[in-house]
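TEACHING EXERCISE
Course module: macromolecular assemblies
Task: Read the component lines below, then compare them to the predicted structure of the full complex.
Student: A.B.
Group: 4
Components provided:
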Amino acid sequence: MTVLTPPAPEREQDRGRAIARLTSMLRIRRFEERCGELYQDEKIRGFLHLYIGQEAVATGVMSCLRADDAVVATYREHGHALARGISADAIMAEMFGKVTGTSRGRGGSMHLFDTATRFYGGHAIVGAGLPFAIGLALADRLQGRDRVTACFFGEGAVAEGEFHESLNLAVLWQLPVLFCCENNLYAMGTEIAHEQAETDLALKAAAYRLPSWPVDGMDVDAVESATRRAVAAIRAGEGPHFLELRTYRFRPHSMFDPGLYRSADEVAQWMTRCPIATYSARLRAAGWLDDDTLAGIEQAAREEVEQAVTFAEQSPWEPMDDLLRFVTSEEVRHG
Amino acid sequence: MAEQAQAPMPSAAAPAPESPATPATVRMTYREAVREAIREAMHADPRVFVMGEDVGAYGGCYAVTKGLLTEFGPERLRDTPLSESAFVGAGIGAAVGGMRPIVEIMTVNFSLLALDQIMNTAATFLHMSGGQCNVPVVIRMTTGAGRQLAAQHSHSLEGWYAHIPGLRILAPATVEDARRMLAPALADPDPVLLFEHALLYNVSGDVPPADAFVPFDRAIVRRAGHDVTLVTYGGMLARTLEAAERLAADDGIEAEVIDLRSLRPLDEATILDSVRRTHRAVIVDEGWRSGSLSAEIAARIAEQAFFDLDAPLRRVCSAEVPMPYARHLEQAALPQVDGILAAVRPLVTR
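Instructor-supplied answer key:
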C-alpha cells in the first residue's frame, strides 16, 4: 500500500501559503513589540492595545477574504490592519499622530481606517461595530453583491445589547456577515466567568439560529480552515456565521494595565501555546521551514517595522489650521 | 410602546404623487408631505430605502409610511425588530456601503437607545477616518409633547443632538418644509436628523413648487416686524406666530418671527440681522431651559449683538419636569401663547 501524497506543485503551494501565514503573524508580533517600546518612549500616546498572542486570528481570517470584502474591527486592531494589507507605514504614522497616518492623525491606535482595503475601523465602543457591520452587509445584499463583511469583536462585546440585537437582525435578514468573536477570556480585567452566565459563546450565539463554531484561535490553520468554510457558505447565500475564536492576549489590556487579575502562571501556560512558536515548529516538522528561511522572515519583518518608524518620525503634522476639517463633508466651519 | 397615536388620513386624500414638479401649489397635510417626500426619493433613487419599527405592515407609528409597503415591497420598506441601536447602526453601515437609508425612529425618547450609534459612529466617522468615510444616512423621528403621552414619549431633545459636531439637525415646521427638506437631506453626504413634531402631522398647508424652496440650512423670517424678534422652530412656530398676531392686535407690537429650520448649523446671520433691527429677542423652545438650544441662541446673541440690545434676552421654554400625563399639567409644562405674550410685553414699551 502506497501513501498518497499531493503532487509537488500543490505541496509547494501549500508551503507558500503556510510561510505566508507565519510571515503575517511574525510581522504583527514584531510590529506590536515595537509599538510597546515606542509607547514607553512617548512617541505613541493615548491608549495602546497590543495584539500579541492573538496573531493567528487576524492572520487566519484575513487570508480567506477577497479584496472587495469588508472588515470591521475593534480598538485592538493593528494586527487586523496589517493582515488586511494596510501599510505598516500608514499605521505607524497614525499612531504617531502624523498627517500620513491612515486617518491623518485624527484616529490614533484605536481608529485605523482604510477605504481602499474596505477596512472600516477601529471601533472603540465595545459592541458598536456589530450594527455597523450588518449595515455594510445589508448594502451588499440590496445591491446584489456577493461580498462578505467580517466583523471582529471580543468576548466582552457579548455582554452588550448591540451583540444580541445585531445577531438577531443579521439572521432575520440573512445578511452576509462573518461574526468573529475573539474570546481572549478577559474583558479588560474581568474574566469571562464573572461576566457571562453562559461561557460557551458559540453555544450562546447558536440560540440566534446561525451556524456557530468554536475554533482554536491559537492555531492559524484551524482559524483559516473554519473561516474558509464559513466564508464560502456566506457567499453562497447561507446567511451569517459565527466563529468563537478561543485565544489569549499575552500582554496587558493596555499600557495602563497592572495585570492584577490573572496569574503569571496562567500567562506562562498560555505562552507555551504561542501561535507563532507552535506554527514554526509544525512547519519545521513538515520540512517546510529551516533556520535560514525563518531568519529571512524575521529580518524582513524587523526592517519593515523600522522603516515604518522612520516614515512616521519623518512625516509632517496636519496643519493646525485644518483642525476643523472633516467634521462635515463641506468642511464648513460652523460657528 | 407607541401605538398608532393618530388616526391615519384617508388614502384618497393623497395628492397627485407622480408629478412632484407640478408647477402649481398643492395643499396637503404634514403627514402626506413627509410621505410624498419619501415616495419621491424612492422613485428617484434605487439606493433609497426605509427601515424602522412598524414602518411596513403597520404603516408607521404616525401613519407616515402608510401604503408604501405595497408600492415598494419589503426589501425597501423594512420592518425592524425593536432594536434601535442595531437598525440605526445598520442604517449607518448601509450608508457607508453605498445606500441612502431613511431610518425612522418612533420618538426622540427611543432614539436614546441608538444614541451610541448616532453620536459615536455617525457623527464621528468622517473625522475619525481622516475624511475617508462619509455617512449619508437620514434619520427621521417624532419629537414633542401635547398628546398626553407622558414622560417617555413626549420630550424635545433635538437640542441635545444640535450639540454634536458632524450632524445636521433639521426641524421642518411647515408642510412645505416637510415636503421639501428630505431630498436635500438625502443628498447631503453627512448624517442628517429630521425632527417632526407629533402635533404637526394633521396640519394642512400649501406646498409651493420645488423651485420656491429656500435652502434647508437657512432660517426664514415667517413674519416681519420691527419691535422684537421671536426665535423659534418646529412645533412652537404656530403658537409663536399666533402670539405675534395677538401682540399686533392687542398691543400694537410688531414681532418678527424667525423659524430656525436648521438647528445645526445655526443660521446666525438671519438671527443677528433681525436682532440688530428690533433690538429685542425672545426665544421660544419646547426643550428644557437648562443647558439648552435656547441658551445657545441667547448666548450667541449676547456674544455678537450685545450692544444692539435694548432689553434683556428672554426665553419661553418647557417647565423643567418630566412631561406629565394629565392634560392640565402637560399644558402647564409647555410654552403657551400667554407665556410668550408675558415674556414679550415688558420688553417693548410703547
